[in-house]
Every structure is written in C-alpha cells, then in structure tokens.
C-alpha cells in the first residue's frame, strides 16, 4: 500500500519559555521562528539567570496566552493579566550566553515568585538573541512518536512532551524518518523550512506535559540507539526560509 502524503498533525508554542506548550490550529512562521514563541522568559531576580526548565519543571504547570499587548499567565496559585510594559534593561544569562533582557513591569513577577518559591522576574529578550537551545523551528514525526510509545509502553503521545513547533504525520514511514531530512528543505503549507540538525534532548522530555514532575523514562528508552556523541537526539530543528502561516492538515513535502 502506498504511504499517504505527509501533513501537519500538531502545531504548538509557548509565549513564556518553559511554560505549558499549547496546541494551536495555526502558527505564523517568521524569520525568527513561530510568531509569539518564547517571547518572554523567567529570570532569577538575584542572579539574572534564565530559569532552565529541566531544573524548574513546575513552570510547565503554568500556561501563557500572548495577544499583544495583553499577556495572561495562568498558574496553579492564580492568574495574572495585563498590558505589557517594558522596564529596566538588565544583563541575563542563558546557559553560556549573555542576553539583554527588558524587565516586564506588572502583576506577573509576584505570581511567578510565589509559584517558584523565590524572587523571579518576567523578562523579554531585547535584540536578536533568543533564549532557545537549537534552531528556531523544531519538528517531530508521528512515526517516531509511535516508536517512543512502543518502547515506553505509555500509549499514544501527541508530541507535547517534546515541545515541537510542528508534528508531521508521516503515516507508515519508518521511525526516525526525520533524520533523513537533515540538510534538506521541507515545504510545509506555503512555508519552507531548512532542516539543519537532529535535535539534542534533555530530561525535560521525561516530565509530564502541562504539569511537570517525572512520569516517563523517555531518555532511557532512546539511549541505546539515538546517540550523537554525548547527546541523545530526537526530532530535528531548522530555520525558516520562506515565511508563511501554517495550519493543521497543511501538506508537507520534502524538497530535497
């Protein structure tokens, strides 16, 4: 039986780095990646260090909605909403990179400080740098998600734990088919994405989506055959070559 054409199965992003990865019916792919993705970050007030999700997975229990100029954050302890006003410019640290950050004034810092149990700031990255680990767009496939489900015995996974921009429905294609896309271009609806590398993963993928806390040993399930040097890889990342709005069920085609 001929494999059906590939198409978009899921789209998602989070306006605040580390918070719940929200599924959306469409996203606009810009030169810097999906519009409104990881616009804001949470920063330790004392050190200027951007909170790492792997060390602060309770961030996943918060959900952010960004409809400029209004930002709403829903946390287990309450909600905060209002128009964003940028304040002081500070130096922040994201892993080994320095970032220029604008402190966001308003009700969010108080809510988040209570949630994380220490003083934090809500900030917006100023300038071209972004608080991201790899390429601006990430992709996983339904074939690979099915293989992870088989290995872990945890049933269907819509991909949210991997926090991808796009889940591609690859039908009956083999697991990890996306590895073969590296160095190629994908047409996704009217957009074109250049696939640059296999995506290194950290222990965030072992956490419960939209909640935090360990639930599935995904990294252990991938460790035997999904290594690239010292990294465990799953999915791919890349950059946007042709800008466009992408929607669920849009066709996906390998351009070579």
UniProtKB/TrEMBL annotation:
It comes from the Bacteria. Signal peptide: none annotated. Residues 78-255 form the MOSC domain. Pfam families: MOSC, MOSC_N. GO terms for molecular function: catalytic activity; molybdenum ion binding; pyridoxal phosphate binding. This is MOSC domain-containing protein.
